[in-house]
Amino acid sequence: MIITPNYRLSKENTLALDVQAAYYVRLESPEDVRTLSRDEYFRTLPFITIGSGSNLLFVGDFKGAVLRYVPSEIRTLKEDDTTITLQVDAGANWHDLVMDCADKGLWGIENLALIPSEVGAAAVQNIGAYGREIKDVIRAVHYTDLRTGTDVRLPVSEIGYDYRYSIFKEPHMAYALVTAVEMELSKVPTPMLEYHGLAPLQGRTDLTPREVADFVIGIREQKLPDPAKTPNAGSFFKNPIISTDDFATLQKEYPDAPHYPAKDGVKVPAAWLIEQSGLKGAREGNVGTYPRQPLVIVNYGGASPRKIVDFSEKIQATVQEKFRIELTPEVRFVRSIELKSIDAL
Ligand SMILES: Cc1cc2nc3c(=O)[nH]c(=O)nc-3n(C[C@H](O)[C@H](O)[C@H](O)COP(=O)(O)OP(=O)(O)OC[C@H]3O[C@@H](n4cnc5c(N)ncnc54)[C@H](O)[C@@H]3O)c2cc1C
Questions:
Q1: How many angstroms is it from 126 CA to the middle of ligand 1?
Q2: Dihedral over alpha carbons 141, 145, 151, 153 (to 10 degrees)
């Protein structure tokens, strides 16, 4: 375990916000996690476990401990003629795993190529893209309970998966530090090409998972800014779900409004609402919406957290005024003052 005080987090969040953590704790083994859970001082500090920081907005300096679990091994748990079950450590890079599996001819996660994530966070977030969600391949998640130092294996049926949701996102579950994820992949072709963007691949009988992954990468590279060059945190807002009545009213004024059926109403793309509000490519100093995808807020260089928060609130207010629809952030706003210590959980 390596503990660094006053650690700059600019390389630990893809918005490249230059904030500091009072303590940055690099956890290099399961034993490190158990040791940390017994540390009396750590137990009194607010804390957060992070992956690659691609869904986080540090609103200011973090006056507590930022934990990062780095092990990244991949083990085979089970294998037969048609499937393989892998156990992957939480610190493994998600995209590298996708490409490694695709190159081995394994199906199941190829649609999720190029999502910036670590494997543990991917399971926490239930990442999804191009008609696939990681929950479809997850069999169990392993975590260490930081209150007791005990290791738990939670089967997928108990993780409460939903759209971009798992129970690990609940604030009271902050004690669960995810250490590994079990995934079942297929050795026989199981392409999922229903998503309209993948139509050019439909009907192909000779397709490999690598080709699907490469196709997805091609589309994503055209649409989304690379956080390494243009700092951002992906989709900043969730796609709002509105009532069917409200949608009927919206449709009267905008007959072509894009929409999708949802559990409790109708889902309207937040990107469309932002674009219709005249904010596609809008820029205020060093903050703006990405010209090719207005749902992404970009730090064009040296933006402060305050600037990004203000800009995001301006988008919310403009959309609210024009459509009377509330946009809620998909990005997690991190304020140490709102987080509990292990002893308080
Ligand atoms: C350019 C870009 C494109 C994106 N595209 C997509 C997309 O297509 N689909 C999609 O679903 N998302 C997308 N995202 C969002 C992001 O990639 C995901 O949310 C991803 O899972 C975040 O992973 P991370 O490792 O960066 O986690 P972080 O952002 O560091 O953390 C995310 C959350 O997980 C928790 N967490 C992290 N690690 C652990 C752990 N070991 N134990 C317990 N909790 C943990 C954190 O506390 C936090 O709440 C995109 C982001 C960017 C920047």
A1: 9
A2: -30
Q: Report percent pLDDT > 90 for the chain.
A: 98
Distance separating alpha carbons of residues 71 and 29, to the nearest angstrom: 6
Catalytic, out of 34, 164, 220, 335: 164
Q: Is the C-beta atom of 121 inside 6 A of ligand 1?
A: yes
The CA-based angle 163-167-170, given to 5 degrees, is 105
- Is 338 assigned a catalytic role? no
Contact assessment for residue 46 and residue 4, using Cβ atoms and an 8 Å cutoff: no
Q: What's the pTM?
A: 0.96
Q: What average pLDDT does range 68-73 have in this prediction?
A: 98
Residue from 52, 55, 216 to probe ligand 1 pocket by mutation (most atoms less than 8 Å from CB): 55
Residues 6+ apart with CB under 8 A from 177: 27, 33, 49, 67, 69, 143, 144, 146
- Cα distance between residue 105 and residue 208, in whole Å: 7
- The verdict on the CB of residue 33 being under 6 Å from ligand 1 is no
Q: What pLDDT is recorded for position 197?
A: 92
Chain segment 243-266, per-residue pLDDT in tens: 999 999 999 999 999 999 988 899
| Candidate list 235, 277, 312, 336, residue with the active-site label | 235
pLDDT tens figures, 308-322: 999 999 999 999 999
pLDDT for 203-215, tens place per residue? Answer: 998 999 999 999 9
pLDDT tens-digit map of 87-102: 999 999 999 999 999 9
Q: Cβ of 215: how many Cβ atoms within 10 Å?
A: 20
In short, whether 54's Cβ falls inside 6 Å of ligand 1 is yes
**Residue 176 CB coordination number (10 Å):** 21
330 among known catalytic residues: yes
Residue 304 among the catalytic residues = no
